[in-house]
Every structure is written in structure tokens, then in C-alpha cells.
């Protein structure tokens, strides 16, 4: 009898226990919620970096870079450049994008003349496309990409310094060739270089793009490039041009800042005249510049706005090449 | 009887309740702890900025700067400089730190020759101290401080560009005069300029300080300076020197990065020879440089470490002063 009786307080305690538990759980949820709200929101301009982090990376992959070089019809130059770039500090790997469709790569010869300090991977393509070099290559293990045209030579010293600059501006395109857009009264944009000036823009000059034919940028941007509107790919394939302008749009949209940081090169050379193929680059075509202005305006339509921002910052190395290059000669 | 008897299960439940509660509380603390650990730690290099935000600021106070100029025994130069700086774009106010103890300021004459576009405030000091200029002046309403020595003239154009650079690097000292420390094998540090070289540091040069005698920095750092160890103030007063070195230590500790960003000046001049007082600056004293090395080592002891970091970045304006200064002459 008293057992039944005595169950009562037990039940009461049970209910109290239940109430108490639920109250505590609610408090727990509130605290958790409040604190979670305080967590840092992922900044856009950090995104590519985070993305890369997801791939496991060797230490060397973190403080080194991958050279991506697309080549077409200039194998002699390619080999000359491959030899040059073997001696670059912090170079982790070379990816050669082989756009000579149906032609054999010089891999065999290259290997036979080894050993080489830095591994070279030949990526044979099935179509000769400008944007082949903008794939997210599985062989790419570093955060930093150095993209070079196959007719351009930049000194080891310039590359080492520019890489150290990129490490301080990882969300920007850090390179040696600045370009700009200007908007005309008609609202149509023009593309150009130093010869093109913004009317009434006072002293000095500005740039709004840094070309990826001689630049460092974050490998995360190659992933982002795979997720662009079809119209962007169509534009690049139709013109066989402007992939570098598209990358500047992508980066500017991503960061909300100017896409590029210009590093003044001490020694940059165009080796085109040295090729035996006699092949001269796309940029010699009469329509080249017109196409690029056309692309800027097209991209503004596709992205529904002009993301490019101007910068007038030029970075050089303190005390190099002249010991006192920081002293102003007047 | 059964009451006594029946208290038992109650007590048992009580104990259970107690146990359960304590368990839940522990869980609560653990979760809270875990989530708190995930909270963003206030980045030091943001602190001064946050601090400033607390003061209400006019829009103009946000995109303009305050010139702080300390003067001693060079009133003729002071007036020349005040006239020059009146024409600087984005200048919000001038604060003159009047170290001529017991002397009347030229305020009356200055006002009589008005109107002047930019307000000038004379802060009469009671003791002639180097660090008077590092007070957190109530008249200071802008985030950006331009600090200038009273014998140095920097062109309006250099100042406008450097200010735009500071706006992109607000946690750094952005200025025109780089200096460095080097550590000797004995572990003792030396202070110097380009003549001083790190043994075996390869190509180019480095700096680890940017002097505040011709530089922009965040006004929050003036607040931080008020909270330094007494030994720092004693060192500065004893030497009447090194306040600028101390500021570089403060900023480097604050950011964990190099304290300064060096902007290559196009036109910077020392006007000392132009003064009628014949007074020549402290830095002419034989012991000046020795004192500064002494200060570096003292500050390392006071702060229990060497916070200064090296940089080799030199910033110039793209396309200025020469239209194509980005083109490498070879």
C-alpha cells in the first residue's frame, strides 16, 4: 500500500525533474545560439583561400607556387623557358598546357635530358582553346599559381620578389603587366594601356587590371572560374581572347577591391622573335585591341555591372636594383 | 511513520536532481566554453580603428586627416610650413604642439592674416618634451594623423598619394623615411639607414621602421601610446629622442606585422638651413645615432622582445612623376 502511496512524491519529483531539464535545455540552446551568432562570418575575399585549405597540402605546397604555362606552336621557346624556370626559388611544379592538338609533347626528350629539380607535367588538350589554361588541374597542389605566357621571360629575381608580395596580397592578382578600362561619355568602355587616359584624371596614371600572362594569383580562382556563366566561356572561345580580362572581373567581383597589384618588373622580356616557328602571338592581330574593348563591354552586360576598380599603387623592391633606389633623384 | 519512510525516495530524487543539475551545469559550461573558444579574438591591428569609431565623427573627419606638428625654436619655419600645408587636400585641422615654453604663440598674427581654409590650433606646452606630440589631443577628430617635423616639407602631391595609401593600410605607419635595425652576433642591435646592411641578406635592402616625423598613422595609436610602460616615457625623456622608435615598436606589437609601409617621396626637403634661429635639429648631435641604437636595445628589454619586422616593399604612384615610370629603362 505505502508503495503505491509512495510512488506519488516520486512522480511529482519526476515531473519537476522533467520541467527542470527542459528549462536547462532551453537555456543551453539560447546560450549556444547567442554565441553562435557571434561567430565570424566567412569573408568573401578569404573564400578561395579557405577552399584551398580543404585540399591537404604539404608544407612546401604552402610556401611555394605552381607555374602554369600554356603553349601553342612555339616548342623551341617552351623548352628554353622550361630550362629557365627550373632555377626559380619556391617553384613547386610546372604544368604545361599543351595546345598543339595531335602533336607529340617533348616530354620524352625533356625527361631524357634530366634529371630536373622541378617536376614538369604535360597536359595534352583535345581542343586548342585560350581558356584551357584556366582549368582547375588536379596536379595543382599549391595555393599560389604563377601563370606565364609562353613568349615571356621574367627574371628569377622579379619572380621571387613578386611571390613575396603575393603572399601579402593573396586575394589579388599580383603581376607585371597593368591595363585599364575607361568609360566614354557614351557609356561604352574602352580597353587600353598607358596610352589610354581618363579625361580629367589629374596627375599620374591608374590601372584596373593586371594581366594573368605574367602574374601570381590564388589557385582558388581557378575553381571559381569553373562556375562562371556560360556566356563568359562563349565570349572567350568566340574571340580566342579576353580570358585574362574575365579573370580580372572575377577577382574584382570576389574581393570588391581592385583586382590586381602591379609589381614593377626589373627585367621582363618578350622572346617571340626568338622562335623558329615564326609564329607571332594572337595580340598582333589587327582586331586584338578592338576585341578586348568588345570583351569588357560584353562582360559588363554578362555580370550586370562594372566590377573593375582603379589602383595607382606600384610596388618595387626597396633598395633593388639600385642600392639607393628609394632616394629621389631631383 | 510512512512519512518518515516516504521522505526517503524524495531524498533520493533530491540527490538525483542535484547530481543531474550539476551534470547539466557542467555540460552548459563546457558548451559555452567551447563556443567561446570559437569566438573571433579581437585582432590587435583592428583595435585602434574600433577605438576611434567610438568617437562620433563627421563624414569629412573620416576621409580627411589632422596634421600634428611639434615646433621648437623655429617659428619662422613653422609659419612657412603652416602656409604650405593650408593648401593640402583632405587636411581637416592642424594641431601645433608649441614647445617654446613661456613664449607667446604666433596665433594672433596668424589669425590677423586670415582667413585660412584649415583651422590651426596651438597647444601650448608646459615642459619641452619630445613626446609632447604623442598626446591624445581632444581636438583630434580624424582617424588619420599626419605627423610632420617642423623642418621638413613634403609636396602636396606626395601627401595626397600617401594618404590614399594609408587608407588602404590603416594599421600601418605610412611614411617617407624608412629605417632599420640589425642584430649583431653579440645579440646587441644597431640602428641605422641604408648604410647599415644585414650581413648576407642577398639582393636589395629592407626596413623595419618608418619614422613618424613625416608619416600618416592611425590616431588610435596615440591612445595606445598613453598606456605604455613608464620605462618607455623615461627613456624618451632621458634621451629627448626615440619617441618615433617607440611608436614603431608599439605598432609592430599591435599588428604582428611590419610597423611601416614606405612610400617613395617625389619631393621631400629639409628646410633647416632656412631658419633664422640658426637652431639645428636634435639629430645633428654627435650622440644622436648612438642614442637611437641604445633606445632600440632598451625597448627590447622593456617590451621583452624584438617586435620589429622587416619589409622590402616600396610604394610609388603608377605613372607619376614620369608618365611611364612603370616602364623599366634597361
UniProtKB/TrEMBL annotation, chains A, B:
Record keywords: Glycosyltransferase included? yes
Q: Which reaction does it catalyse?
A: 3-O-(beta-D-GlcA-(1->3)-beta-D-Gal-(1->3)-beta-D-Gal-(1->4)-beta-D-Xyl)-L-seryl-[protein] + UDP-N-acetyl-alpha-D-glucosamine = 3-O-(alpha-D-GlcNAc-(1->4)-beta-D-GlcA-(1->3)-beta-D-Gal-(1->3)-beta-D-Gal-(1->4)-beta-D-Xyl)-L-seryl-[protein] + UDP + H(+)
Annotated membrane topology: Single-pass type II membrane protein
> Cross-referenced Gene3D superfamilies, in alphabetical order?
Spore Coat Polysaccharide Biosynthesis Protein SpsA, Chain A
- Matching InterPro entries: Glycosyltrans_GT2/GT47, GT64_dom, Nucleotide-diphossugar_trans
Segments forming domain Glycosyl transferase: 65-320
Any one of the GO BP annotations: N-acetylglucosamine metabolic process
Required co-factor(s) are:
Mn(2+)
Q: What is its EC number?
A: 2.4.1.223
Give the protein's biological function.
Answer: Glycosyltransferase required for the biosynthesis of heparan-sulfate and responsible for the alternating addition of beta-1-4-linked glucuronic acid (GlcA) and alpha-1-4-linked N-acetylglucosamine (GlcNAc) units to nascent heparan sulfate chains.
Name-wise, this protein is Exostosin-like 2
Highest lineage ranks of the organism?
Answer: Eukaryota, Metazoa, Chordata, Craniata, Vertebrata
Amino acid at each position: 500500500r505505502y508503495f503505491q502511496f509512495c510512488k506519488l512524491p516520486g512522480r511529482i519529483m519526476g515531473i519537476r525533474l522533467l520541467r527542470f531539464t527542459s528549462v536547462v535545455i532551453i537555456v543551453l540552446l539560447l546560450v549556444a545560439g547567442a554565441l553562435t551568432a557571434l561567430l565570424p562570418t566567412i569573408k568573401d575575399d578569404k573564400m578561395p583561400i579557405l577552399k584551398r585549405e580543404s585540399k591537404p597540402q604539404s608544407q612546401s605546397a604552402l610556401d611555394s607556387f605552381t607555374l602554369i604555362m600554356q603553349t601553342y606552336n612555339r616548342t623551341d621557346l617552351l623548352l628554353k623557358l622550361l630550362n629557365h624556370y627550373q632555377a626559380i626559388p619556391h617553384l613547386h611544379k610546372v604544368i604545361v598546357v599543351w595546345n598543339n592538338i595531335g602533336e607529340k609533347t617533348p616530354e620524352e626528350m625533356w625527361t631524357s635530358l634530366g634529371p630536373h629539380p622541378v617536376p614538369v607535367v604535360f597536359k595534352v588538350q583535345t581542343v586548342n582553346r585560350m581558356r584551357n589554361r584556366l582549368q582547375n588541374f588536379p596536379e595543382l597542389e599549391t595555393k599560389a599559381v604563377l601563370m606565364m605566357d609562353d613568349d615571356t621571360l621574367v627574371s628569377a629575381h622579379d619572380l621571387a620578389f613578386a611571390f613575396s608580395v603575393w603572399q601579402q596580397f593573396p586575394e589579388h592578382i599580383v603581376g607585371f603587366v597593368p591595363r585599364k578600362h575607361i568609360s566614354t561619355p557614351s557609356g561604352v568602355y574602352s580597353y587600353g594601356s598607358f596610352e589610354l587616359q581618363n579625361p580629367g584624371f589629374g596627375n599620374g596614371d591608374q590601372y584596373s587590371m593586371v594581366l594573368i600572362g605574367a602574374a601570381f594569383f590564388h589557385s582558388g580562382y581557378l575553381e571559381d572560374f569553373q562556375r562562371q556563366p556560360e556566356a563568359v566561356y562563349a565570349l572567350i572561345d568566340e574571340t580566342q581572347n579576353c580570358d585574362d580580362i574575365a579573370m580580372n572581373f572575377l577577382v574584382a567581383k570576389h574581393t570588391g577591391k581592385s583586382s590586381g597589384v602591379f609589381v614593377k618588373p626589373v627585367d621582363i622580356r618578350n622572346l617571340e622573335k626568338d622562335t623558329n616557328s615564326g609564329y607571332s602571338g594572337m595580340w598582333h592581330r589587327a582586331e586584338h585591341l578592338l576585341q578586348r574593348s568588345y570583351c569588357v563591354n560584353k562582360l559588363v552586360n554578362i555580370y550586370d555591372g562594372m566590377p573593375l576598380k582603379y589602383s595607382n599603387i606600384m610596388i618595387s623592391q626597396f633598395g633593388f636594383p639600385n642600392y639607393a633606389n628609394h632616394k629621389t633623384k631631383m
